[in-house]
Amino acid sequence: DTAVSQTPKYLVTQMGNDKSIKCEQNLGHDTMYWYKQDSKKFLKIMFSYNNKELIINETVPNRFSPKSPDKAHLNLHINSLELGDSAVYFCASSPHGADSNYGYTFGSGTRLTVV
Amino acid sequence: LAKTTQPISMDSYEGQEVNITCSHNNIATNDYITWYQQFPSQGPRFIIQGYKTKVTNEVASLFIPADRKSSTLSLPRVSLSDTAVYYCLGLPGGSQGNLIFGKGTKLSVKP
């Protein structure tokens, strides 16, 4: 069983479109995250979310919005896609008070290409 | 959060022990040091975490001296499959807050 799964793995879309990336974790973790890795390979936190609090990185455009229907899911919605949104997006999860033996668990990523 | 500095790249050969050093001069009292590994086209994977002295698991060892201003990740007898980017991060309380990734160290293992 995949611990943190993201769909789709690849997404190619045109500028101006609205798209969503889904993330599910079956680890029973309390907190989920979205990270963006750009072409220079820098990994940047976008959001962290648990059932109590959404923390948004202030540099993230408001075209990006996380939606969490339940504790096991954190989807990423992107409106009016731009060329600069092309990147690999990683979902991650951690337990409340992350276990020092296991850390955070990341998904395998979604490669978004905006044309 | 502790700002970390690592070498941009390192080369090694199969079977060697590899030590990657990370500097974190401004580490806070409640910061833990955690290391992640990332293969191409995959998400980061947790390797090890520690506060001070030495921590060892089945994958690696982590050495943190008493002043905690640096740490060393030790990979015993590396293989080609250990070629990856290794990230050193500071994490408040070992679990509170978001992981803030730097540039990491690209380790290349050669036959």
Tell me what the structure shows:
The complex is a heterodimer of chains A (115) and B (111). Chain A is 0% helix and 48% strand. By secondary structure, chain A is mainly β. Chain B has strands spanning 9-13, 18-23, 31-38, 45-50, 53-56, 61-64, 70-75, 84-92, 105-110. The mean pLDDT of chain B is 91. Chain B starts with 8 loop residues before the first strand and ends with a strand. Chain B is mainly beta and 111 residues long. At the A-B interface, strand 5, strand 9 and strand 10 of A face strand 3, strand 4 and strand 8 of B.
Topology:
The complex is a heterodimer of chains A (115) and B (111).
Chain A: E1 4-7, E2 10-13, E3 19-25, E4 31-37, E5 43-49, E6 54-56, E7 64-67, E8 75-78, E9 87-94, E10 105-106, E11 110-114
Parallel strand pairs in A: 2-11
Antiparallel strand pairs in A: 1-3, 3-8, 4-5, 4-9, 5-6, 7-8, 9-10, 9-11
Chain B: E1 9-13, E2 18-23, E3 31-38, E4 45-50, E5 53-56, E6 61-64, E7 70-75, E8 84-92, E9 105-110
Parallel strand pairs in B: 1-9
Antiparallel strand pairs in B: 2-7, 3-4, 3-8, 5-6, 6-7, 8-9
Number of helices of chain A: 0
Q: Using DSSP, what is the number of strands of chain A?
A: 11
Q: State the order of secondary-structure elements of chain B, H for helix, E for strand.
A: EEEEEEEEE
Mean pLDDT metric of chain A: 89
Adjacency order of strands in the biggest sheet of chain B: 1-9-8-3-4
Q: What's the story with the biggest beta sheet of chain A?
A: 7 strands, mixed
- Beta-strand content estimate of chain A: over 45%
Outline of this structure?
The complex is a heterodimer of chains A (about 120) and B (about 110). Chain A is mainly beta and about 120 residues long.
